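Fold Annotation — chain and its backbone

Fields — amino acid sequence, structure tokens

___
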Amino acid sequence: MSDPSTTPGHTAQQKIDTSVPHSARIWNYWLGGKDNYPVDEQAGDAYTAVFPGIVTIARSSRAFLRRNITHLVAEAGIRQFLDIGTGLPTADNTHEVAQRIAPESRIVYVDNDPMVLAHARALLYSTPEGATAYIDSDVLDPDTVLEAAARTLDFDRPIALILSNILGHIPDYDQARSVAARLVDALPSGSYLSINDGSRGIDPEFDRAQDGYNESGAAPYVLRTVDQITAFFDGLELVEPGVVPVTQWRPEEGADAHAPELIGEHGGLARKP
């Protein structure tokens, strides 16, 4: 295994604030990870007390991403990935799934959380045939992300852009669409866009729980309607079955047998013509 490269950005020297709950660490807690602090566990427990289904959403989201990557590598022949808003490393990270199938795969992770940066070098390793890199940057600065990613990825060959539960962190919908479009515009024909985000209007309890969380003063995460999530794929060719609850995107026999059919998290995968 080879050591990944890390490109520091404007947050590289930030200290990790363990006195305030952070969404990436709370998500890690819901996934069963250990990279969190008591304040994150308290916030996570307070949320699950209102809406226990958030744990199912978190874990179903992760399973959706794994199935997406498996399809991209095994069926679509993709060997390059740009994963923005990767969050804290857990089991079945993008590079692990991709390189198990195609060891030559190249993956670039992007996040602006100083705790994610602190764990990147220790946890994100590549096969000798492939490569991984970590960029300390913000999705709101797509030009910087693309410039840095080009040091590892070949933008003359198809790339899969992964935006998993990141666009909801951009409160303004028009801005979120603009950022996604700018990133997709930079990709060559034959590339793919994978998106999954929390969906509004599916589960009233989830809507209320997330609205309450956003009103608490924590960094907000905006739930969007299925139509709004679908519109991120405008101009692209959606892969069947389209934008659906993440549990219903190509579920695996056995592994996904007990997953709920309707869930407040929708996602899809689309190809750039």
Observations:
- DSSP finds nine helices and nine strands in the chain.
- The first helix runs from residue 23 to 30.
- The radius of gyration is 17 Å.
- The beta strands are 5-7, 80-84, 106-111, 131-136, 160-164, 192-198, 237-238, 244-245, 265-271.
